[in-house]
Amino acid sequence: MARVTTRVDTVDLGEPDRDTLALSGALTFATAARAFAEGGRALASGVQTRLDLAGVNRADSAGLACVLALAANASRAGRRLAVVHWPEGLRALAAVCDVETLLGRSVDQPAAV
Q1: Domain architecture of the chain: domains with CATH
Q2: What is the C-alpha to C-alpha distance for residues 14 and 94, in angstroms, rounded to an integer?
Q3: Per-residue pLDDT at 71
Q4: What is the DSSP letter of 84?
């Protein structure tokens, strides 16, 4: 008999320091709504200026939309949210979708000389 396995995507939010909200795990269609809701609550009640994506091991277009929406919410609240440590796949998706300019230099790209 064949064994069927399913993958359950999970995403976790942490606050490693006062200025940082960190996402880890899979930022996908299955998790983006929860990440956005929990991240939005954390940003609304905190003083974070940085969204750290170093722990994100998989992401898709819903994950990118989540990151953009969190940055937009912070902007509407009068704060700039620097997005750091972009996973390469998510950075490439932002470039393909031509949205990296919406995040300014927060896409971890060095400034042009």
Answers
A1: 15-104 (3.30.750.24)
A2: 23
A3: 93
A4: E
How far is Cα 38 from Cα 90, in angstroms, rounded to an integer?
20
Q: What is the per-residue DSSP string for 9-22?
A: --EEEEEEETTEEE
Q: How many CB atoms lie within 10 A of CB 74?
A: 22
E-assigned strands of 1-113? 11-17, 20-27, 50-59, 82-84
Q: For residue 99, which phi and psi values (nearest 5 degrees)?
A: -115, 0
Q: Which residues pair with 25 in a beta bridge?
A: 11, 56
d(CA 11, CA 46): 20
113, two tokens:
């000389």
Q: Residues 4-57: pLDDT tens digits?
A: 655 778 999 999 999 999 999 999 999 999 999 999 999 998 889 999 999 999
Which helix (DSSP H) or strand (DSSP E) does residue 85 occupy?
none
Q: Where do we find the tokens 């902007």? A: 75
